[in-house]
Amino acid sequence: MRILVTGAAGFIGTNFVHYWVQEHPDDAVVALDALTYAGSRENLADIDVPFVHADIGDTEAVGAALREYDIDTVVNFAAESHNSLAVLDPGRFLQTNVLGTQRLLDACRSAGVARFHHISTCEVYGDLALDSGSDAAFTEQSPYRPRTPYNASKAGSDHVVRAYHETFDVPVTITNCANNYGPYQFPEKVLPLFITYALRDRPLPIYTSADHRREWLHVRDHCTAIDAVLHRGRIGATYNVGSGLERTVTQLADDVLALLGKPQDLRVTVPDRPGHDRRYLLDSSVLRTELGWRPEVDFAAGLADTVRWYAEHRAWWSRLQERSLVTESSW
Known about the structure:
- By secondary structure, this protein is of the alpha/beta class.
- It has helices at about 10-25, 60-70, 85-90, 90-110, 150-170, 190-200, 220-230, 250-260, 285-290, 300-310, 315-320; strands at about 1-5, 30-35, 50-55, 75, 115-120, 170-175, 180, 205, 215-220, 240, 245-250, 265-270.
- It contains 11 helices and 12 strands.
- Strand 5, helix 5 and strand 6 form a beta-alpha-beta unit.
- The protein is globular, with a radius of gyration of 19 Å.
């Protein structure tokens, strides 16, 4: 394959580039990123891949990269992704996630790429009641019911991807993933925020809705799922990618504090974010049965490795924290 990875300097994109170069050394990988506040060129400094500084909404620049590197596969991670920021500035999310995806598809359609793979989220389905059982998980047939501007922008991008497949026969696949964790995640997100705050003995801000739950997937398991879809997935298909492992916000804070030997009184309650979803859980049985994928990273071990990574990379996240655009208690 000759793969263009968009959003390659962000969290999941960075991990995917590292994964693909390691696991598929004979493939050619090109990284593309707009280097917004959450992207860091430093993330790819130790990998010898071409880097294109461009926005996915710049059809001309993307098209030039597709032609220059003779790309046959595009994996689209590029997105504004912070729910809290979307509450304050929803327009930037619609601009990048919906219109940006549409313009990226135009470039790929013109270049005749053999596969366009789009990364989406469990959040497009809305949320589940906290007292619903494990059988209440979202399937690929669940209706889209986004509740926040970020969720709506991702739902819109999914619809655009499917429309380009149905109308223009662009060969697409989509994966909707659970909450990811692992190295290189921008410190505005809950786990790296908790870790970096705890490392500096700062209070961990926990929403009043502390019993809300999320399904957690290690970023490497997400990468192996995309690998399976690219090699064996059905054109036009959507696959849910989940671990089945859920944790409340309070449990996450306690996990981090315990791993770092910090006291529980570092927890502090802050006002809840508007539109805060209660619970996500994905049914990933289609991906597991059809493509033979399984998550391999145990949560306790993966979280311990993640905490260790942040402890060893203070210079990396200290610089990035200065770029954060949201204070979680500012509602």
